[in-house]
Amino acid sequence: MSSLTIATWNVNSVRLRAQPLIAPFVEQASPDVLCLQEIKCRTEEFPEKTFREMGYSHFHVRGMKGMHGVAIASRYPLEDLPDEDFCRASEARHQRVRVKGIELHNFYVPAGGDEPDPDINPRFAHKLDFLDRMTRYFDRRSNEDADMVLVGDFNIAPHENDVWSHKQLLKVVSHTPVETAGLDAMRDAGGFIDVARALIPEDEKIYTWWSYRSRDYRASNRGRRLDHIWVSPSLRSQALAAGRNAFTIWDEERGREKPSDHVPVTLTLSL
After folding, report:
1. CA–CA gap between residue 131 and residue 114 (Å, rounded)
2. Which CATH number fits domain 3-270: 3.90.226.10, 3.40.50.300, 3.60.10.10, 3.30.930.10?
């Protein structure tokens, strides 16, 4: 039986972290497909040569000047599929490819700013609109029975134990009820399986992000699970067949020198 290992990682600048951070991770984890968010470069500035040295030969890059951008590097051929414009601000936050027969979506959902009120915070309104567009898109496609994997920085921690303090973060952007309800609606629209919570009990705290503001992230451990891997119902058995060993949150990457504030997450699908 063959397999496919997919990694997702908000790297917070691909040019800054490709050689010192991403390359050692790839050597250890050996993902077949690497989905990156917040690459912070134009498409033509993506360090393809460095990724070829890591063993990747197929690329789909959607970059832009500024804080955004997404990229996929793969050991297997990629069929480019039209990127959906979920973002009313025309930011590079989504890409879609087909790899080994699987439709792969790479998302970088807007963070939403600091104030969780769409009437006074345009960034938060933008985030909610992005989620609504995602929901409507997958609802339209709900009868297709396509093999899909959704990955990325969704910038929402949906469950109580996806944050260090459910009570204290209920009014903090990324864990507010309106955001978690929006993410639930999007998941339900496509019938997607949240792989992390399908394999890890909901009473166990799991995080993929720790703020730079904490000097010792392990000691404070005030994390959130913002990075996700979901699969369509048709891939449920392939995603869960190997149990928890097939899914890894590489939290040690947060302790590297000059790290991203996010850590990579990997899933090995049995094909």
Report:
1. 17
2. 3.60.10.10
The one-letter amino acid code at 52 reads: R
Amino acid at 21: L
Spell out the per-residue pLDDT of the chain, length 271, in tens.
799 999 999 999 999 999 999 999 999 999 999 999 999 999 999 999 999 999 999 999 999 987 899 999 999 999 999 888 887 778 999 999 999 999 999 999 999 999 999 999 999 999 999 999 999 999 999 999 899 999 999 999 999 999 999 999 999 999 999 999 999 999 999 999 999 999 999 999 999 999 998 778 888 899 999 999 999 999 999 999 989 999 999 999 999 999 999 999 999 999 9
